[in-house]
Write a structure and sequence with these properties.
globular, alpha+beta, disordered C terminus, 102 residues, disordered N terminus, single chain
């Protein structure tokens, strides 16, 4: 799948991390993208759907294969820093119910 650069641009990995941190414990499904080329020839290609949850300093990442990993924020940025992300959609899964009862 590919889309032109004029389509909705992906958000950065650090912006996604900030978004997730504000919604601590709630899982979101996003589509990872990579950009190729420059200018009018730039193309954004989708590489797969991931599910992310942030609780404190821990990031839980589940990839297209279904494998789940626990990462530090620095580890998340090291692995996913080169990707852009689109379509953050809440899955309805919560890992931390504290915000609901605070």
């Amino acid at each position: 799948m590919s889309a032109s650069a004029s389509a909705i641009q992906p958000i950065t990995a650090s912006a996604l991390l900030d978004f997730l941190a504000l919604r601590g414990g709630q899982e979101f499904r996003v589509t990872a993208c990579v950009s190729h080329g420059r200018g009018r020839r730039q193309e954004v290609r989708e590489v797969g759907a991931y599910r992310f949850t942030v609780r404190g300093d821990a990031v839980q990442a589940c990839g297209p294969s279904g494998q789940t990993r626990q990462l530090s924020r620095a580890g998340y940025l090291e692995i996913f820093g080169g990707y852009g992300f689109r379509g953050a959609e809440a899955t309805g899964n919560m890992t931390d119910l504290g915000p609901l009862f605070s």
